[in-house]
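Reopening this ticket.

The earlier resolution said the output was attached, but the attachment link was broken on my side. Pasting everything inline this time so it's all in one place.
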Amino acid sequence: MNPKVNIVVVVDVIGALSDGTLRNGNLCMVDDGSLQSTGQGTPELCTVVQPGQVVTWSALAVDLQTPVEIKNITFLGPDGEAGPTAPLTHTPAHQGSAPRGPLPGTPLGEARDQAGRDGHAEERHNPELEVWSGVVPYLAPGVAHPYRLEVQMYEGEYSTLHIASPALMCP
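Inline output:
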C-alpha cells in the first residue's frame, strides 16, 4: 500500500463560471490510488483509501489565465449535512514547507520568488501549488464518506462553486 494518495481536481473555469456549476463536464477528478477507486474523471470520484494513508487534494485550471484553488473541504454526515471534520491541513503555496503536525510528506509544489520591476524579490501567489492534505482515520469499511469540495476561481460574487458528490471509502 502506498502511504499517500493524490487527488487532482481539474476545473474548466470558463465553463464553470459561465454555467454557474461544476457539473456539465466542468469538473474532472482523478486519483493515483492503487485500490479500486470508482468514478475516475468525474465529480463522483470515490477514492478508496486505508486508515493511516495521507490524502492530498490539488486543483488545476483548464483555463490557464484564470487561477483556481480549493477553498474548503468539508466531510458530510449521512444526512448530507456537515459532519465531524477529518484532520485536514491546508498548505499554502507561499509556505513552501512540509505540513506541521502528524502529516508526513511535502507539498506538491512550492512558491517561487520572482524579481519585481524595481529589482526587489516579490512572492508570486500560485494557487495551483496549494495542497490540502489529511490522514485517513478509521472509516467504516464499504461506506462512502462524501465531502463538499469548494473551489475558488478568480474573484467576485459568483467565483466560488461547490460540489458534494466525491467521497472517500475504505475497502
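Reporter confirms the inline version is readable. Residues 93-125 have pLDDT under 50 and may be disordered. Helices lie at 13-19.
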